[in-house]
Amino acid sequence: METKHTTIHAAAQITADPYPSIPESLKELRIWLPFRTTPRQDGRLNKIPCTQEGRHGKYTNQKIWLTYGCAIAAMRKHGLAGIGIVVTAELGLVLIDLDHCFTDDAFDPTAERFTAVLDTYTEVSYSGDGLHAIAGGHLLWAANKRGMFEMYDQNRFFVMTGKRLAGTPGTIEPRQAEIEAIHVEVFGPEPKPEAPSKGCDTILSPYTQEGGEGLPTFDYPDQLVVAAVLRDAVARKYFTKGVQPHNKSASEADFALAWKLAFYCRKNISQMHRLFMESALASRAKCRTRRGSIDYVTYTLQKACRMQPSSWEPRTTRKPAPSTGRSVGRPASETTRRVLAVKADHPELNASQIGEQLSVNPATVRKVLSRHQTAEPAALQQPDPSRPALMSCPQSVRRLYPKPSNWKHLPAPKAPQRTSAAIEAVDNEDLAPWLDECWVPPPVVHGHKIRAPA
Predict the structure, then answer these.
(1) pLDDT tens column, 153-196
(2) Same structural domain, 110 and 236
(3) Which domain holds residue 108?
């Protein structure tokens, strides 16, 4: 008999409601999901919604929403951390989140005053040092977070603990007037739409590149801007990978990318919006929500434009510095001027001869001539230079000039041994017998050997 009573008592404990303080008006709705927690780098916890099978799920998908009983059963079956509700605009509820507002010894005066003004169901948050209050109403405009204070009326997963704060009602009360007063005190009145300003185009047309009068023209095409974004290590990781592990929230990642786009797009809202929606961050449902008269993405981009002090300028399009009438670069040295003067007066001299005449290292002369070589020899500037003129050109230049039409290739014979006197006697006139048959280069002297036609 004792065993039977023990079994009945254990079964009663399993089926008992673990959250008896949660208002019945919420338990009747199909808006529940279990969740699990994962640690964050800042020491806090992520609350990740799960499906009935215990897998991660998107709370914006209504198909996975559960009843209160099914959410409790899934939590127990898969060993999850707890349950929560999905807040939508149709519910007509406002959720107030006060983070880190009390400890064992002190209660934040502002949070205590707000709790007393709302006078609705309030419970201790999952972290244990904050409060969650739920009241009937809606927000006048989309301002949700400032410091430790948050207010939401749609598109939010809200963790429930059932730990009702002593002295607060056990039901959800309508408090529209109180919600408006608190919202204005914390976030201020709804801002008026900003007039178009220099460098930041109007918000009335953030999605189109072409259109009516007054629409801005893009300074640079999307391909050029995206290439610059991908070269930026910080912008690239947000654009291609989305939220980073070190980000405290996804909104922080959104603003980081918006800040970079404001720089590279030169504060062009239309182009910024189009590129942002192509990034990895745009896959989140929050990017399709609204903030009053504009959407969340445009609201974030406008904020980034106001705070970005500079704009990008590609290197290839930078304007040259104004001319001062002076030559660019450092002035030519005395040695350079002497070498160029001798070369201009005696173009037939080579680097060794000029160096010997000026007592300058031939390597230095070659370097000066290579840096200041601006014109081709006079022979090549003629439309149809004669053969003698070609023969007088340096060999390095002759290689660049097309060969005559009657050119015949003759294999170079082995050069006989010649004396120094014979070498000095060789000149262009010695080649005259061969000019009628073919055009050949002049003799090239290699040490004491000469290679010439046989």
Answers:
(1) 988 999 999 999 989 999 999 999 999 999 989 888 876 654 44
(2) no
(3) 16-187
